[in-house]
Specification:
- The chain is α+β, with helices and mostly antiparallel strands.
- It has five domains: 2-225, Rossmann fold, CATH 3.40.50.300; 240-339, Elongation Factor Tu (Ef-tu), domain 3 (Beta Barrel), CATH 2.40.30.10; 352-425, Elongation Factor G (Translational Gtpase), domain 3 (Alpha-Beta Plaits, 2-Layer Sandwich); 431-531, 2-Layer Sandwich (Alpha-Beta Plaits), CATH 3.30.70; 535-646, Elongation factor 4, C-terminal domain (Alpha-Beta Plaits).
- 26% of the residues lie in helices and 34% in strands.
- The strands form five sheets. Strands 7, 8, 9, 10, 11, 12, 13, 14 and 15 form a nine-stranded antiparallel β-sheet that branches. The protein has a six-stranded mixed β-sheet with strand order 2-3-1-4-5-6, sandwiched between helices. Strands 20, 21, 22, 23, 24 and 25 form a six-stranded antiparallel β-sheet that branches.
- Strand 5 (159-165), helix 6 and strand 6 form a beta-alpha-beta unit.
- The structure holds guanosine-5'-triphosphate.
- Guanosine-5'-triphosphate (GTP) binds at residues 12, 14-20, 40, 52-54, 113-114, 165-166, 168-169, 208-210.
């Protein structure tokens, strides 16, 4: 029955406590056994747990019981004996009693990531639910991503429940329960959030994911305020219709689609039709998330769960597709089904491009298969084949930001065991040539006879407390920021500006965090293309150009930036037995140079004066291991950490 189902997600700025609040929900609903419970339970990826950030949305089904005490309800015998029904209320009015009325709800929660690079995950989650808990850290207030997520939830037509988290920080030892409610900071934040949501301050919940304060109240509000899933009309020949909002690869079950059923039902005996890819298949399993996979054999209208699609090729699953179930292929029509496809999702637009090559050239196929499986679980990735003279065959990857790129490289290594070599992350440039406009992402692709280069711009919004104004304004000296203007938001300032997208690839994020002691947050939207005053700079080690290390640098700071890069490369690259020059060249001339000194002389096996043989053998073995490691990292293979360091501004 849809009437007892509530689907909702938690949205917030990064680190405002979504996953911790989700933990309390899991405990409160006894979804996860106490002995298995661990902090940020829904962050299942090893990488998420290590970095303390959510990368993937995580659905979970919880059973929540609401007790209405001392309610006038029919006596048990009335319910058990239908013959006693005597009126149109369905029971004998004289046989009522006051008792606790227990009402059971199925709550489908989707925890979402907070970092803007993963906002595509959030937008997909929003389409699968009817409501959202918008969580704001009371010590931070409304941040850039709070606003961005709020606007997305509003656009998706969701019912929004506002909540201030971490209220425990205002509770002093010995305080009575709830004394912090009157703290002026809590009251101020409550008013700010209420104003944003067009609600009354008392409608904003106060909660602590740490202590559990206010958690049940939020769940009660979810059952009361969030609408029941809408019922849709049945479709001829179709048993069920659902939105595919996510997918992943399971080594035992194959390609799995996470679905939200919008009409009818799905049963294991049914066939399925994936409309976008025009694919018919036989399901292998149906179930829901607890948050692990739990087989049920059936999913009904309004529910969220998964289907093991029985499809072998990961390319056949498209996120945002509509999946139909049917029990009779004779009466099922693909055309009728196609007429009832759901709106789906806008294709994500990659903004940062980087090429990945397998570190071991015989791992090309492994890299290809791994990327296909990863894309199932990360539909924001764009993948195209690529070729490099030195690095061989690889893939051009489109990501939604620098963190997204780093996480992708790391997931490939951890989840699929492939090590990669990558080029500098870049953006898409438009170049005017004598044959018209071309688009390039790698500086190496720049033709020698071009007329002008255009680069994508972004419009940024930065929010920070007033006292960090001068620090925030310092971005102007570090990054190519233009059209800066500020606006007061209570005790905080919103700074809006225009900036080339490529500046984000540098450490803009980290810089802002460090100058504002973590109090500034930012979000951005993609703007127009504008003329770029840049030049291509190549880096050479021992006279050989390093593939993937070419960059476009602003003309105004060309030599300064190039000098910094060679100096940095000098400290980052492994030393060899001989000294190596590191050079930067632009427009056919060398504009910067530094030398990597030779490695220090090794000790002879027994040293100059003989000595303890065991100790010397140990040393010799250590040196041998070191050399092997060095060999593994030949000049052409620049580890991702080097790219990251090179991209830092200071
Ligand atoms: P992302 O998904 O990466 O955006 O993070 P998140 O919003 O899921 O935040 P998370 O739950 O990981 O919490 C971030 C930090 O805040 C962690 O260090 C938590 O321990 C802490 N935290 C979360 N809730 C509370 C709370 O109610 N009180 C206090 N004092 N700290 C909290």
């Amino acid at each position: 029955m849809e009437s007892n189902i509530r689907n909702f997600c938690i949205i917030a700025h990064i680190d405002h406590g979504k996953s911790t609040l989700a933990d309390r929900f899991l405990e409160c609903t006894h979804t996860v056994e106490e002995r298995r419970m661990k902090a940020q339970y829904l962050d299942q990826l090893e990488l998420e747990r290590e970095r303390g950030i959510t990368i993937k949305m995580a659905p979970v089904r919880m059973i929540y019981t609401v007790t209405h005490p001392k309610t006038l309800i029919p006596h048990k015998s009335e319910i058990l004996n239908p013959k006693l029904k005597t009126n149109n209320l369905g029971f004998n009015v004289s046989n009522l009693e006051f008792a606790d009325l227990k009402q059971e709800f199925v709550l489908n929660l989707i925890d979402t990531p907070g970092h803007s690079d993963f906002s595509y995950e959030v937008s997909r989650a929003l389409e699968a639910v009817e409501g959202a808990v918008l969580l704001v850290d009371v010590t931070q207030g409304i941040q850039a991503q709070t606003l961005a997520n709020f606007h997305s939830a509003e656009k998706a037509g969701l019912t929004i429940i506002g909540a201030l988290n971490k209220v425990d920080v205002f509770q002093k030892p010995g305080d009575e329960e709830g004394v912090f409610l009157s703290h002026p900071e809590v009251a101020r934040m409550r008013e700010e959030l209420a104003a944003l949501l067009h609600q009354k301050p008392e409608d904003i919940f106060l909660v602590s994911g740490k202590t559990g304060y206010g958690v049940r109240e939020i769940l009660d509000a979810v059952t009361e305020r969030i609408p029941i899933p809408k019922k849709n009309e049945p479709i001829q020949g179709v048993k069920g219709r659902a939105l595919v909002f996510d997918s992943f690869y399971d080594n035992h079950k194959g390609v799995i689609a996470s679905i939200r059923v919008v009409e009818g039902f799905f049963e294991t005996t049914h066939g399925i039709f994936l409309a976008a890819e025009n694919t018919i298949s036989k399901m292998k399993e149906i179930g829901y998330f607890i948050p692990e996979l739990k087989t049920t054999g059936c999913l009904k209208s309004g529910e969220i769960g998964y289907i093991a699609t029985g499809v072998k090729d990961p390319g056949k699953i498209k996120i945002g597709d509509t999946v139909f179930s049917f029990d009779n292929i004779q009466t099922f029509s693909r055309d009728i089904a196609r007429h009832h496809m759901l709106l789906g999702y806008e294709e994500p637009k990659p903004v940062i491009f980087v090429s990945f090559y397998p570190e071991q050239s015989d791992e090309y196929d492994l890299l290809r298969q791994s990327l296909e499986k990863l894309k199932l679980n990360d539909s924001a990735l764009a993948i195209d084949p690529d070729q490099n003279e030195v690095l061989g065959r690889g893939f051009k990857i489109g990501c939604l930001g620098r963190l997204h790129f780093e996480i992708t490289a790391e997931r490939l290594r951890r989840e699929f065991g492939v090590s990669i070599v990558n080029t500098f992350p870049s953006v898409e440039y438009k170049v005017k040539t004598k044959n018209g406009w071309i688009t390039i992402v790698k500086p190496e692709e720049l033709p020698s006879d071009y007329f002008e280069i255009l680069e994508p711009m972004i419009l940024i919004d930065i929010i920070f407390p007033t006292k960090y104004l001068s620090s925030a304004l310092s971005i102007q000296q570090k990054f190519r920021v233009a059209e800066m203007h500020t606006e007061t938001m209570g005790e905080r300032i919103k700074l809006s500006a225009k900036m080339p997208l490529v500046e984000l690839v540098s450490d803009f994020d980290d810089y802002l965090k460090s100058v504002s002691e973590g109090y500034a947050s930012f979000s951005y939207t993609i703007g127009e293309y504008e003329k770029a005053e840049v030049m291509r700079v190549d880096l050479l080690v021992s006279g050989n150009s390093i593939p993937g290390l070419s960059r476009f640098l602003p003309k105004e700071s060309l030599e300064r930036e190039a000098r910094k890069m060679v100096e940095k490369l000098k400290t980052l690259l492994p030393r060899q037995q001989y000294s190596q020059p590191v050079q930067a060249s632009a427009g056919g001339r060398i504009i910067a140079r530094a030398d990597i000194p030779a490695m220090r002389k090794e000790l002879g096996i027994f040293g100059k004066n003989g000595g303890d043989r065991t100790r010397k053998m140990k040393l010799w073995k250590k040196q041998k291991r070191g050399k092997e490691r060095l060999k593994e990292r030949s000049e052409a293979t620049i580890p991702p950490s080097v790219f990251k360091e090179l991209l830092k501004k200071e």
